Amino acid sequence: MQSILKVKNVSVHFNSKTVIQGLSFELNKGDVMAIVGPNGAGKSVLFRALLGLLPYEGEIQWPENVKIGYVPQKLAVERDLPLNVIEFLQFKGASVNEIHESLHSVGLDHCVLGKTRLGQLSGGELQRVLIAYALMNHPDVLLFDEPTAGVDIGGEETIYSLIEKLHTKTGLTILLITHDLNIIYRYAGKVLCLNKSKICYGSPREALDTKVLEELYGAKVNIYPHEHQH
Predict the structure, then answer these.
(1) Nearest by Cα to 223 from 195, 177, 191, 176
(2) Helix %, strand %, coil % of the chain (to 5)
């Protein structure tokens, strides 16, 4: 397997506070890895370090010319913001055809939603527009920071099915922050348990157990993995 990311003994500090300590892991091209941990564990900070937005100690190694897309947890948009979907996507400098193709890839019709203001979209629609935005430079890697935060249950299923479809179709490497254990079992081939330092790493069924989750969250957590029907 071809390695696409190597993280070696990475630490991140804010003033005198350690947010991530001595973290190491490796991903191969095409992997889907879920990152799980309590609030304040350093998950979003790790993403920012991987994107080169924060100073860190240690090594983060990407292949030369790798393209990385990022989908934020959510985007607060005023309802009366005078910016429609097409205009927002044009910030990427893409052609109209590329914009239409990107919207189609996330299941949105440019004829229906293209002129809709961002503030008038549902949570699920807005999240898919953000994914379309991230896809327009044809990334090798996509980082999803809790992609269904603020999305209703029906929208959650749509977003995760879309992520699975994108991975199957394109072979993208995906890093996904989530709190939903069933999502991890269903979609991820690897899981990283993070609480400032690495608590576990490996396949979900091997790495996750009640002892690990208790160490992560400080309380007893029961695991009920089950198969989902597609």
Answers:
(1) 191
(2) 35, 25, 35
Q: Which helix (H) or strand (E) holds 102?
A: helix 96-105
Among candidate residues 3, 52, 50, the one with its CA nearest the CA of residue 31: 3
Cβ atoms of 69 and 134 within 8 Å: the answer is: yes
Q: What is the pLDDT of residues 19-48, one digit of tens each?
A: 999 999 999 999 999 999 988 899 999 999
Following DSSP, what letter does each residue of 164-193 receive, concatenated? HHHHHHH--EEEEE-S-HHHHHHH-SEEEE
Residue 84 β-bridge partners: 117
Two structure tokens written together for 210? 């009640």
3-class secondary structure, 144: strand
How does DSSP classify residue 84? B
β partners of residue 27: 5
HSE value, Cβ hemisphere, 13 Å, CA-based, for 99: 18
Distances (CA, A) of 141 to 31, 174, 204: 10, 6, 21
Whole-prediction pTM: 0.86
| Domains in the chain, CATH or no CATH each | 3-217 (3.40.50.300)
Q: Which of 35, 32, 36, 2 is nearest to 174 (CA)?
A: 32
pLDDT band, residue 208 (cuts 50/70/90) = confident
DSSP 119: G
Q: d(Cα 176, Cα 184) in Å, to the nearest integer?
A: 9
> What values do phi and psi take at 151, rounded to 5?
-110, 140
Q: What is the spatial distance between Cα 42 and Cα 21, in angstroms, rounded to a whole number?
A: 9
